[in-house]
Amino acid sequence: MSAKITAIRGMNDLVPGQSSVWEQVEKTLVETAGSFGFSEIRTPVIEKTSLFSRAIGEVTDVVEKEMYTFEDRDGDLLSLRPEGTAGCVRACLEDGLIHNQEQRLWYRGPMFRHERPQKGRYRQFHQFGIEVFGLSGPDIDAEIIAFSAMLWKKLKLTDHVRLELNSLGSPEERARYRDSLVAFLEKYRSELDEDSQRRMYTNPLRVLDSKDARTGEILADAPALAEFFGTETRAHFDGLRELLDGLGISYVINDRLVRGLDYYNLTVFEWVTAALGSQGTVCGGGRYDGLVEQLGGQPTPAIGCAVGLERLVLLLEALNLVQETPAVDVMVCSMGEQPAREAQYLVNRLRFELPEVRFMLHCGGGKVKKQMSHADRVNARLALILGDTEVAGHSATVKILSSGEQQTVPESDLAAFIKQHI
Fold it and tell me: What is the rounded CA–CA span in Å between residue 48 and residue 154?
């Protein structure tokens, strides 16, 4: 017997039962994005490596250590996408979607990072993201955050997540802060954790995100980025906070929140939860006003956010908020060769009449008891049974599985009866 082939570590299957939960979550995401005026965009999972190194930053962990990168037969260096924003910007530029235009887009799909798999952090993971181009004011920042707050309300998660908010200022303000921060960190270099020592010259703001206890103690006395803000940055952040207060969206200011990618400026935010341990971020985003120009376009203000679907599903499961949805509404059963044919014709007609109802035709024959067991296994609500008597009378026996009640219903009334009981 040959050896079994297994999935790649950190890349997981979604089997029936699991996939139905994802379907519910994704439906909520798509409907909410539509209610906010967003349109779908689909981009490839493979892009030129230079897209990500230019957009995300050469010295980020994503580009340095985590991307799945390979050379194809033509000698081009390609990468599986580690996030969705860069590809979205590339597509918008290539297809002429954002030159002198406002654009509001959503996307979903798999992303890839070669890191150590753990609960809530996988090598293939899935994100739902939204991006807005062409708007620079704090009003659209508040709208993006309001979108995510609406998701939590619909998923009954409002009391289980917390909004953390910060501003990274302009690139010029951040550059001045960077010099001050490096000068401060140099005094404690030997006491910093290994990652922070490596980052302090290449990407010092990422040191602020360190989870090391001693580094955290040192950072308590570090200069604050807000000390370097000018009038425009302060006005933008104050305007956003005023709008969030008016919307009734609670938040906490986290002056160490920097996000992991280099393209952010001004507003950054994360929704975090205490219910998932160390992997507590379920949504994050911010403004990236320089990215379009960096990738070859005209200066274009932009903001977006992304929801991690694996973590969102894990959170719903941890809080027992997953709603079981039956895979089947009506199981169609038959007894005998002719009734089996008639059952197939009948269920096909019913599917056209009731496209919203989920029908399953029992195939392969067998006794009625076996067919009823099948209906129970798939959690059907109704069983529709055809035998010789029903065929002759142009009717069907319909059994309500929750109560055991059953009755004979004329074929002409079946659609209305099913609709009434589903």
Answer: 37
